[in-house]
Every structure is written in structure tokens, then in C-alpha cells.
Amino acid sequence: MLYPLKFHPILKSTPWGGTRLLAKSERPHGPEPIGESWEISAVEEHVSVISNGPLAGNNLQELIEIYMGDLVGDAIYERFGIEFPLLIKYIDARADLSVQVHPDDATARRRHNAYGKTEMWYVVDADPEASLILGFNRPTSKTEFLRCLREGRVMELVHAERTRAGECFFIPAGLLHAIRKGCFIAEIQQTSDITYRVYDYDRRDLNGNPRELHVELASEVIDYGYHPSHRVNYTPRDNRSIRLVACPYFTTSLLTLNAPIPRDYTCLDSFVIYMGVEGAVAVDAGGEEPVTVTRGETLLLPALLKNVTLYPVEPSKLLEIFIEE
């Protein structure tokens, strides 16, 4: 019998990571900063393992093999098979991440036999001076971009945008981007680990080696146009689902809760993911006990569970993520 599923986080040490994710570690951790917690992953060699209930110890692909459309939705299983289509993360940036870009599906398939990467960010927390790099500050060209890279002036071209908690940004494949220091972010993306770094501030990795750059690959997929903003404008409403992003790869809404609400997914042929971004919410799917999602936690609701009730333990916010066909 399927039920709301939690997973052991897959923690990633990075040169730019911080300390906010250390509490998720289930064993003593060394001095390395933690930059990412992969909450739900089907990336090869990094497949999530269930942590709660009778299915604990099984990994996500094993469950999809057994439960198929009951877990992920019939159309999603037909399209993706046992590969879960989304990678769900929390990111803690103590320092700036590299300036980077991701390929689209067609390019990733041709170059890597993989999916491309379109993603979105929800800013869970941000220091007062936190900002993000999102595209260029004016129209440019591949020639100008490469010249500025060679001359160490690429930061003169990028658009930096201040941010604060509660803001949301859509990052399509081809958009040059970077999370900067002071940001704690919930990231929803296609299942892909393909990143082309173009600039990394001359940093070294944890072993003291220069971090690899992928300038030639990146330069062929970058969108060199000018787009004034990638911020998603929305108005939260108490105890309602407010749509943030809808694209072919995922749909994400924000639930701002101060009272119990029912959620009816009868017409949805998809799993649902809840990411806790504020407070704590008990998810009652009609099982023996509700499963609580706190800030920084993630829950997967199998597709066959069509009716749940959300009980906020305190004023809370959840991201609600699924795939619409």
C-alpha cells in the first residue's frame, strides 16, 4: 500500500556551500560546507531511498518498477518509465555559485543522451544583500561574450537582481544564471545533472584543483538576448493554491496555510510533491497517521492518493509540485 513518502537527503559538499543543511545529515559530517540537499532524485548513482514507513530502504526506481502509474501517474510512467522526471533540491549558498547555463532537451539528447535542464527557484531565505544573476544586462552576442570572458570582464555583461525570501524565478534552458551568496533556495528542475560552467571566480575545488569550465559547450546554447526580469509575479492568498510556474516539465504552486484545507487531485494524473518552505504541515492522506512536512523537508504523494487534507501546525507555506499533461 502506498502512502506519503519521505526520502533520505543526498547531501553534496561544495566550495560555495554553507551550514544550513548540516542538520539534515544523518551522520557526523566533516568540515566541508554543504551546498545542496537532493531531496528527490533519480540521477544515476544518486537515486533517493525512502526513509519512512513500511517501504523504508527501497529506492525510488524500485518503487516505480513495482507501482508504476500508481506512484507517478499513468501518462508519466508511459513517458519516462522508471526514471523519475524531476530533481528536487535545497541549495544553501554561503558564497557565489559559478556563472552557468544548461542545455535544452534537444541539445542534451544529442550531446549527452540525457534530458536538458529547465528549472525554477523559490527563495526560502535570503541575507539583506543577496542577489541572483539572471541573463544579460543588455543584448549581446557570442563574440562579445567570449571576448569579455577572455578579458576577465564577463561580470560587466550579466544582470544581477536583488532578491528576498518569498520570491520566485523561472530559469529556462539557455539562460545564463548564478545563485549568489546569502541565498537559501528550493529548486525544482528536470532530472538532469548537466551544467556548463562559464565563469567560477578562479576558485579551486575541495582538492585544490581549478574547477572545470565548459565555455565552448556553453557558448552554443546561451540565450544572448536581453530579458528585463525572470521574477515570477504573484499575490499569495491564505489557504489557497496560487500558481507560480507552469511549463511542460512541471507545475508549481504556493500554498499559504493558517487553517486546514482539503486538496482534491482526482483530475490529476501525476504524483504531487510538497516542499516545506515555512512552518510545519501535517498531510493526512487517510492512512494511519498524518505525515508532517517541516521547513526544509520534502514529501512525495503517490498519484493514486487523490484526496488529502493539509493541517498547518503553525502558519506555514508549502510548494506544491506536479506534472500536467
CATH architecture verdict of the largest domain? Sandwich
User: Which CATH class of the largest domain is shown?
Assistant: Mainly Beta
What is the count of β-strands? 22
Please estimate the helix content.
Answer: 10-25%
The separation of the N and C termini measures 25 Å
Overall tally of domains: 2
Poorly predicted runs are: none
Mean pLDDT, to the nearest integer, reads: 95
**Global morphology:** globular
Structural class: mainly beta
What's the helix and strand layout?
Elements: E1 10-18, E2 34-40, E3 42-43, E4 46-47, H1 60-67, H2 69-72, H3 74-80, E5 86-93, E6 99-101, H4 105-112, E7 119-126, E8 131-136, H5 142-150, E9 158-162, E10 168-171, E11 177-179, E12 183-190, E13 196-199, H6 215-219, E14 241-246, E15 251-257, E16 261-264, E17 272-278, E18 280-284, E19 291-294, E20 298-301, E21 307-312, E22 316-322
Antiparallel strand pairs: 1-2, 2-5, 3-4, 5-12, 6-13, 7-10, 7-12, 8-9, 8-11, 14-15, 15-22, 16-21, 17-20, 17-22, 18-19, 18-21
